[in-house]
Specification:
718 residues; alpha/beta; seven-stranded parallel β-sheet; 23 helices; 39% helix; binds 5'-O-[(L-methionyl)-sulphamoyl]adenosine
Length: 718
């Protein structure tokens, strides 16, 4: 019998910059759903991709001195690499600059125009009209339909004035149809409170929207009217169909579309529900195409109290976390700590705490102990005593396996994981009460020993299957150590039963999958790598991952001890071949010495081309500073907190120079500081500026920029 189909999508990501942890969140959530559904016997199509058109991309490219195509080519590669690193199992990837996508978009509108021909002009879905209003180039939102200044409801930035003739979509005519759809599909949008917001929005009346732009070149041309390009959202939403073969020239792809459309789930962050739950169904109704079945929305990842986003400069990058803690750690933390549907705080500290508590001390420790005892005391062979399902089921009768699967079905991932780890904790408690290690040499208790270890191994097997959609790598490894055949992903998660360990199974040598991590060292390694990414971006280098540039690290899953990272110097001494820092000096933070003050600068700095104009240089405010005091920052080996007199005030700044300078050496010293950087916190301490230093030698020793002549604090450096 053929498998039932399941089709889910992530939003396609703007390819104007590299992904951060916030963007990775949607993709990881979808990956968990995709893996879970496969384990329930579905044939899953999982689409992700990149949104590559629009003014913002056009301008971002211009700023970097490259073409829009070059910019999106560069970033699309980074997205794909990251998804690989995160173990994402998407089956499809679509780019909106691909010809197959343009064809789909044009044909979707053609279908609508064909249907329109049969209607009175006043009834037609598409018509031409002059548009005058405000438009947000970052969210591609029509902010208001009047020329008066207005800010974007999503990002808060001012909308730009647009005044041109456009093709309009008669959204107003779809109000009743949409309300009927919502009535007939009670879970069309999840969570419910978001659905209520959508309903009220539609009930309050809909205005027609412009679906083409005339003053923009970087987009898909309107069929037979190439002066216009498609509105980015019309273009982007159609990727959900073009990505699985809609209007494809390849018959096999078309068959794929026939099989998988309509989508079972479109997943996304809360700020873009309206495009999906209002515009998209209306566009499809107008073209006579079946509607997606469900739209699910998650909250935002907040970092330093605000939505993590490049424009706010408060982003954390996934790559360093994966390199230091492993792929499973980030996936587990995001799914466990963020309640799906609500906003959640991201913090590297709590990520490492979770890792140590739940992965290293929890599942990892249970696996190590159980496997080691079986190896040592039972010759590495699963015993036959105790192998009946009822023994284990009796011991853990409070734990309902079926309920855990249902929590996945309801997208209650955090609760699902809480229950799986409840099982792990119950097993720890069971072992602590049984104390099998106290009677390993007592022949009269052999049966009890066998039953106890069998039960623990069975719990381990079940916990691994149930956690597999979230932590795929470690669970597969434990699965193999348990001597289980085949891939864990092929086990039916919805049909799990107690007592499934087969007597006589030979286990493998136990090997730790989650070594304990030293928080301080891990944080430093992560920060160092993050700075490398930021500096690569700021210097206009292609967005390399730390791995590809200078850092060699092992993930804990590869058995690395939590040693100091071998991070090389990302910054190059001024004047050295390849030096490319835009401010003529090297931020100490950027040096191989480690975590640093330059994070402030780099995160706020837009990417710039390798050569910059004088006007770009003029944006950086440099002044002479005199160090008033300096001290170490608790918990950070490489950071110093420095109070610097910059003439009209004394500023607190953080600098990653503690391995090069003792605090007392700095007092009274004249330095060069960047004074117009946005403030940034590191280790909970605010930094309000940046000290400039060169980075010398293979270790990247920081050497502060200073002055030979007398010069007062506050003097401008230019
Ligand atoms: N290109 C549009 C989507 C078009 S879909 C037809 C877009 N792109 S985006 O890159 O801005 O966002 C993509 C996804 O990343 C969205 O689901 C968005 O909510 C998510 N996130 C971006 N920053 C986020 C957080 N800080 N937290 C959680 N998710 C966030 O919108």
């Amino acid at each position: 019998m053929s498998k039932p189909k399941f089709y889910l999508t992530t939003p396609i990501y703007y390819a104007n910059s590299r992904p951060h942890v916030g963007s990775a969140y949607t993709t990881i959530v979808c990956d968990v759903i995709a893996r879970y559904k496969r384990m329930c016997g579905y044939d899953v199509a999982y689409l992700t991709g990149t949104d590559e058109h629009g003014v913002n991309i056009e301008r971002a490219a211009e700023k970097q001195g490259i073409t829009p195509q070059q910019l999106v080519d560069k970033n699309e590669k980074i997205f794909r690499e990251l998804w690989k690193l995160l173990g994402i199992t998407n089956t499809e990837f679509i780019r909106t600059t691909e010809p197959r996508h343009a064809r789909a978009v044009q044909n979707l509108v053609r279908r609508t125009l064909e249907r329109d021909k049969t209607l009175e002009p006043s009834q037609r879905a598409i018509y031409k009209k002059r548009y005058e209003g405000r438009y947000c180039i970052y969210d591609n939102l029509y902010v208001s339909d009047t020329p008066e200044p207005a800010d974007c409801q999503i990002c808060g930035r001012p909308g730009e004035l647009v005044s041109e003739e456009n093709y309009f979509f008669r959204l107003s005519a779809y109000q009743q149809k949409l309300l009927e759809l919502y009535k007939n599909t009670p879970h069309f949008v999840r969570p419910d409170f978001r659905f209520n917001e959508v309903k009220s929005f539609v009930e309050s009346g809909l205005k027609d929207i412009s679906i083409s732009r005339k003053s923009i070149k970087w987009g898909i041309p309107w069929p037979d009217d190439p002066e216009h390009v498609f509105y980015v959202w019309y273009d982007a939403l159609t990727s959900y169909m073009s990505g699985i073969g809609f209007e494809s020239e390849d018959p096999q792809k078309r068959a794929e579309y026939e099989r998988f459309w309509p989508a079972d789930i479109h997943a996304m962050g809360k700020e873009i529900i309206r495009f999906h739950a209002v515009y998209w169904p209306a566009f499809l109704m107008a073209a006579g195409i079946e509607l997606p079945k469900q739209i699910i929305a998650h909250g935002w990842l907040l970092f330093e109290q605000e939505k993590m986003s490049k424009s706010k400069g408060n982003v954390a990058y996934p790559e360093p976390i994966v390199k230091v803690l492993g792929n499973d750690a980030l996936r587990y933390y995001l799914l466990r700590d963020v309640v799906f549907g609500q906003d959640g705080n991201f913090s590297r500290e709590s990520l490492i705490t979770r890792y140590n508590a739940d992965l290293a001390n929890g599942l990892g420790n249970l696996a190590n102990r159980t496997l080691a005892m079986i190896e040592r005391n039972l010759g590495g062979m699963m015993p036959s005593v105790g192998s009946n399902a009822s023994a284990a089921a009796e011991t853990f009768k409070g734990e309902n396996l079926g309920e855990i699967a249902k929590l996945y079905d309801r997208f209650e991932f955090s609760q699902a994981l809480e229950k799986v780890w409840g099982l792990v904790a119950a097993c720890d408690k069971f072992l602590a009460a049984e104390k099998p290690w106290t009677y390993t040499d007592d022949a009269s208790k052999r049966e009890v020993l066998e039953r106890t270890l069998f039960t623990a191994a069975d719990v381990l097997r079940l916990a691994c299957v149930l956690a597999h959609p979230v932590i795929p790598d470690a669970t597969q490894k434990i699965w193999e150590q348990l001597g289980q055949a085949g891939k864990i992903e092929d086990v039916r998660i919805d049909k799990l039963k107690w007592g499934g360990m087969k007597p006589g199974t030979k286990i493998r040598k136990p090997e730790g999958v989650f070594p304990r991590i030293d928080k301080k060292e891990a944080l430093e390694r992560i920060e160092t790598m993050e700075n490398e990414i930021r500096n690569a971006g700021a210097a206009g280098k292609p967005g390399s991952t730390p791995d590809a540039s200078t850092t060699t690290t092992k993930t804990p899953a590869e058995g690395a001890s939590a040693g100091t990272s071998a991070a090389g110097a990302a910054a190059i001494p001024a004047g050295a071949p390849g030096a490319g820092t835009p401010v003529g000096g090297v931020a100490p933070a950027a040096s191989g010495a480690g975590a640093a003050a330059a994070a402030t600068a780099a995160s706020a700095a837009p990417a710039v081309p390798a050569k910059i104009g004088i006007e770009d240089f003029a944006k950086v405010e440099l002044r002479v500073g005199v160090v008033k005091s300096a001290e170490k920052v608790a918990g950070a080996d490489k950071l110093l907190k420095v109070m610097v007199d910059i003439g009209d005030e004394v500023r607190q700044m953080l600098a990653g120079i503690a391995t090069s300078y003792a605090p007392e050496e700095l007092v009274g010293r004249k330095v060069v500081v960047v004074t117009n950087l946005a403030p940034r916190k590191m280790r909970g301490v605010e930094s309000n500026g940046m000290l400039l230093a060169a980075s010398a030698g293979p270790d990247g020793k920081a050497v502060l920029c200073t002055f030979a002549e007398e010069i007062p604090a506050g003097a401008k450096v230019k």
